[in-house]
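Researcher: Go.
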Amino acid sequence: MTRKVLRALSPARLARRLWPPLVFLAILVGIWELALAVDYVSESILPHPKDIVVSFWELIRSDFVWDDIAATLWESVAGFFLGSALGLALAIPSGLSPTMRQMLGPYAVALQVTPRIAIAPLIIAWAGFGYSSKIWIAAIIAFFPVYVNALTGILTVDEDAREMFRSLGASRWQTFLHLMVPGSLPVMFAGLKTAAGLSLVGAVVGEFISAERGLGVLVQQFSSQLAIADAFAVILMLMFLGLFLYGVMEWLERTTVFWLHDGRLVARSRRRAARAERKRGRGGRVPSEPRPTLAGRR
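Model: Structure:
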């Protein structure tokens, strides 16, 4: 494990991964500074990048911002788990039963096309002004991508593999557990990664409407005070939170759906072969099979 981490953090590999986004960031900052230098944009509307970095550092070093970060993170994570659980709980029976799919499908689409900002005040009125309303808003936004992707993954299982399971006498439960679940994981994780970012959006939307703490509240406060650099710094925090949530789901996907990554599959096969070799070494030399003799052939 340590060797793998060190190999992933090697300077050459980090340079190959980081230089394309860093080059794009340098180009973006250059255009930004040029627009401010020629007075194309006012500094009161778009502050200098260095001012945003200074505000970000000052906010991180302060005490009060961490309570807001914890509030937004809790609302996002709880909403993500709730929305994902609801999406999977409805996608599995919908994938196994055409009747359930016809019953639930139109309402899931109707919920998706309804503007969340329109129903957010109703959710706050029903669930109150605390964390519960923001969690439910985040869950509603995170629900649809998990539902659609999990349902798509179940419905697109290889028909030849399904027929093979049927010919071997596998039950419906065995087919679901050993074929449908592994076959749908790649598509399902795509929905989970999307939902992880959308849950953060839902939490911030709820904080915009009514909240006492949270990064969304800070964005509103700084914007109303025309502290634009501080507002951009809070948006930068939200971006890092979203990247963190997405990165966690990316790591879970690479760990769970390891067969999609050839390198990980080869590494796992090598580790298994090494463990088997060590077991044979500890147990002594395995006696070879006797060679067939002429009498034995007769």
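Model: The domain at 62-259 is CATH 1.10.3720.10 (MetI-like fold).
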